[in-house]
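Box S1 | Example of a co-folding query
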Amino acid sequence: MSMIEVGFLLMCAVLAAVGWVVGTHFWTEWYYRLLSAIIVGCIPIALSTAIRLSEAIRLKRRPPYPVCENGCCRWEDYRIVKSDRVDVELVCKCGKRYVKSDQRFQRLLEDGGRQPYKVLKPGHQWVDDVLA
Ligand SMILES: [Zn+2]
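Box S1 (continued) | Returned holo structure for zinc ion
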């Protein structure tokens, strides 16, 4: 378990305790307090789920990488091999290698050369590179 996860669980526990204490002001029945503790303790989980969902929707509409040459790999199927300040070298599930450099997405050839593939247009659309 990472430090972030531990901190996250700790936050849930603290909030659950707060929920319990607040609950005691309103209800005498223990199950209402427990319910209050559970609801308040789940706030971080609900928030992080909402953030993750909105991020997934955003990436679906604005994919950081185009579909691969074989048409089978989408942006989440790429694995970053290496990256520097200018280029990101990626490999898709089929084993094809690409380099993303600014708005261009190029095939990486065996000899280290590059071949134009896709280019990012305004409106976040990946289209065929005119240089191809
Ligand atoms: Zn592929």
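The pocket of zinc ion is lined by residues 68, 70, 72-73, 92-94, 96 (CB under 6 Å). The chain has a mean pLDDT of 90.
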